[in-house]
Specification:
This protein is α/β, with parallel strands linked by helices and about 180 residues long. It is built from seven helices and eight strands, in the order βββαβαβαβαβαβαα. It has a single domain, classed as HAD superfamily/HAD-like (Rossmann fold, 3-Layer(aba) Sandwich), CATH 3.40.50.1000. The mean pLDDT is about 90.
Length: about 180
């Protein structure tokens, strides 16, 4: 692990880009008897993403796999842009940046495996779940306490919203005072 694994995102984050397997899910791949794909998503991660969205943070996904199931979940969460079936994640991130007209410095990216390293390096701030590959954790600005698919996205959402000064307002929506 590098010495900056507990860094906090900058206050001027405008977008968060997520990997899927190992970040939005625990990385397990399930197939039913007729070949249908099944995935498990954590509800608290979904609420964290809704809080980001409602605070005006853009969200995007870059995944190495194509999955109509994942695309359906992303639409449910209000994710505006996603690049599926992309192993060249830094290039895919650049395409999202171009569509958003944002510099990489204003984007947080989260990934867990080797193919995510170029994306984490390209983004202004890179995060990794606690159970990410050690080489990913070594390049991340922040290694989260939670594992992928088990609250890592929610933890990152809170960090980003706190850095932006939006966390308390989002909690107040649910009548939670801090």
């Amino acid at each position: 692990m590098n010495s900056e694994t507990r860094a906090t995102p900058p206050h001027d984050v405008d977008a968060v880009v997520f990997d899927v397997d190992g970040v939005l899910t625990d990385g397990s791949l399930y197939y039913g008897p007729t070949g249908e794909e099944l995935k498990v998503f954590h509800a608290r991660d979904g609420l964290g993403m809704a809080m980001l969205r409602d605070s005006g943070v853009r969200m995007g996904v870059v995944s190495g796999r194509n999955s109509p199931l994942v695309e359906s979940r992303l639409r449910d969460l209000g994710v505006g842009l996603f690049e599926m079936g992309r192993m060249d994640k830094a290039v895919a991130l650049d395409q999202l940046l171009e569509q958003w007209d944002l510099p990489a410095s204003r984007v947080v990216a989260i990934g867990d495996d080797l193919v995510d390293i170029p994306m984490l390096r390209r983004a202004g701030f890179g995060a990794a779940p606690a159970d990410a590959d050690p080489r990913v954790r070594a390049v991340a600005n922040r290694v989260l306490d939670a594992n992928g698919g088990h609250g890592a996205v929610r933890e990152l959402a809170e960090l980003v919203l706190r850095a932006r000064g939006d966390w308390e307002a989002q909690c107040a929506r649910f009548e939670v005072t801090l």
